[in-house]
């Protein structure tokens, strides 16, 4: 045996699984096709948001959360309705217990911290029993994605120095080796070394081969977000037709290769049509990978228009129902949409997903973080996009704004300035009273009762056509690929199951490759903060179970 346990993938789930197995005294070999500088995978690029239930941070902000409310929100979002949802449902129940229980203390024991203001992501479809978070639950890691990866990488590096764990980068697994029906190792190609910077595409030049044996293999290889052909192949009818163009929210190596490899070895893949793609993608003016898209994390005030300039119907408001809005746009034939807003809105409500777009949080810079809340102007990365981003239009008056929108939009998709002016005048007229019939304004007023929104995320309602609140801003929003919600079916020990539902001896999975648990513990929708949390929970379960099975 080359190791007790082989972990395929050095992203967050892989690091968690490897560190847990090594802590249990097992020898671990971690393989990854990317260079060493890409340790941490997609988690490195994340905002580091985590889903906690009834946390001290929530309670300090006056947020009344509970396990019952979280369960209501999760199940209303997941909408489990398939025979194959047995294990995803079991994983969901177990994860909710984890998020309301030891998750926070477990992380804090490794030095993990979150900022004290709890965010309100995925605010929902407007129904108590439906999709969305009833209360704020989005806890941002102090240090963002790198800050969440760090304690697990540190644990793995310590085990590497002791000789218990070994990394083998530029090792691409092409097959799982089976002996007598059990998975007993892996086989693949050694790729030429590459010094490319993190996130950029590395070479695929084969310089050799390898075969390693172990008592258990844990697959933690991620999803399919960079493979747009595979995204379109699995695109569900309920979300309309697949987009012709998308921007990539993940690096090129997130290609779904190991899903095919594991399936070839007999593992069952379920819910491949469940996926999570954003509708607020902007093209990165300073890209790291090809076709690099960044997601806007919006507050609730921007007017949201389709590519013809028609206001989206409720509850398709900013920050509310990701897949509901995606489905509306695709069923009505729109490849992109628009935010229309003011400088006051962008200063208060725009944030960008990604560790590199949040230097204050990533760099743990208190002074810079305070300036986000109390200084004039939008944060520096937002202003950079305003200045350089090809999807941004800035103008002092509506006529010039619409001229710019029509230059940035696709041919044949013209915005009519008269219609847009009437829409904005109608909206502004609703501000004469502290109540009214515009549901989006009512929501914004309500959400400002949450301290976090009032401080950081929701601008006071104001007239968009009042020049004192300008300039006016329009942002073209592209569909951005991101997460796989289905994948390898696993039981609560992380053991991969075959098509008959029986465990495959020696084969485990964790992270996005198994829908973050069970083959899709989030069902049809996600509540945010659950992707990284799913990597933590499933990686821990698979690493511990694989270690326990070693004889």
From TrEMBL:
Keywords, comma-separated and alphabetical: Flavoprotein, Oxidoreductase
UniProt GO MF annotations: steroid dehydrogenase activity, acting on the CH-CH group of donors
InterPro entries hit by this protein: FAD-dep_OxRdtase_2_FAD-bd (IPR003953), FAD/NAD-bd_sf (IPR036188), KsdD_DH (IPR014614), Succ_DH/fumarate_Rdtase_cat_sf (IPR027477)
Pfam families: FAD_binding_2
Limits of the FAD-dependent oxidoreductase 2 FAD-binding domain: 4-532
Protein origin, superkingdom: Bacteria
Coiled coil feature spans: none
NCBIfam families, per database record: PRK12834.1
Record protein name field: FAD-binding dehydrogenase
Organism the protein comes from: Rothia koreensis
């Amino acid at each position: 045996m080359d190791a007790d346990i082989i972990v395929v993938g050095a992203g967050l789930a892989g690091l968690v699984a490897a560190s847990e197995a090594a802590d249990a005294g097992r020898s671990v070999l971690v393989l990854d096709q990317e260079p060493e500088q890409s340790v941490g995978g997609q988690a490195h690029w994340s905002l580091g948001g985590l889903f906690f239930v009834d946390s001290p941070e929530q309670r300090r902000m006056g947020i009344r959360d509970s396990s019952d409310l979280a369960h209501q929100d999760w199940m209303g979002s997941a909408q489990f309705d398939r025979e194959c949802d047995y294990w995803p449902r079991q994983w969901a129940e177990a994860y909710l217990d984890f998020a309301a229980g030891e998750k926070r203390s477990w992380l804090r024991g490794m030095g993990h911290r979150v900022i004290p203001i709890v965010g309100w992501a995925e605010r929902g479809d407007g129904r108590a029993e439906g999709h969305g978070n009833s209360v704020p639950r989005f806890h941002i890691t102090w240090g963002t994605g790198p800050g969440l990866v760090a304690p697990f990488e540190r644990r793995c590096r310590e085990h590497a120095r002791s000789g218990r764990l070994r990394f083998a980068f530029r090792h691409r697994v092409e097959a799982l080796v089976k002996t007598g029906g059990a998975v007993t190792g892996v086989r693949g190609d050694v790729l030429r070394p590459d010094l490319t910077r993190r996130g950029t595409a590395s070479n695929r030049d084969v310089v050799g081969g390898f075969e390693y044996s172990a008592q258990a293999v844990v697959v933690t290889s991620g999803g399919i977000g960079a493979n747009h052909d595979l995204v379109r192949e699995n695109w569900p009818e309920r979300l309309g037709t697949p987009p012709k163009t998308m921007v990539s929210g993940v690096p090129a190596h997130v290609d779904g290769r190991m899903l095919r490899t594991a399936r070839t070895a007999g593992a069952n893949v379920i819910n491949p049509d469940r996926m999570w793609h954003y509708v607020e993608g902007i093209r990165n003016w300073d890209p790291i990978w090809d076709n690099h898209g960044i997601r806007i994390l919006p507050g609730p005030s921007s007017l949201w228009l389709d590519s013809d300039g028609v206001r989206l119907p409720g509850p398709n408001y900013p920050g509310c129902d990701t897949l509901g809005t995606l489905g509306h746009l695709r069923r009505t034939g729109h490849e992109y949409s628009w935010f229309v807003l003011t400088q006051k809105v962008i200063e208060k409500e725009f944030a960008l997903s990604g560790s590199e777009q949040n230097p204050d949080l990533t760099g743990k810079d208190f002074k810079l973080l305070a300036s986000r809340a109390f200084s004039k102007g939008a944060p520096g990365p937002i202003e950079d996009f305003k200045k350089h981003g090809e999807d941004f239009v800035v103008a002092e008056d509506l006529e010039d704004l619409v001229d710019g929108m029509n230059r940035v939009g696709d041919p044949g998709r013209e915005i009519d300035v008269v219609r847009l002016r009437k829409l904005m005048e109608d909206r502004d007229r609703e501000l004469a009273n502290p109540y009214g019939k515009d549901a989006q304004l009512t929501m914004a007023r309500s959400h400002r009762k949450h301290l976090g929104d009032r401080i950081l995320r929701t601008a006071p309602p104001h007239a968009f056509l009042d020049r004192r609140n300008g300039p006016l801003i329009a942002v073209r929003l592209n569909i951005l690929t991101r997460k796989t919600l289905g994948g390898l079916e696993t039981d609560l020990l992380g053991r991969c199951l075959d098509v008959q539902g029986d465990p495959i001896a020696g084969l485990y999975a964790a992270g996005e490759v198994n829908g973050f648990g069970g083959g899709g513990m989030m069902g049809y929708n996600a509540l945010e903060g659950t992707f990284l949390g799913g990597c933590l929970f499933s990686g821990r379960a698979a690493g511990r179970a694989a270690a326990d099975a070693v004889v």
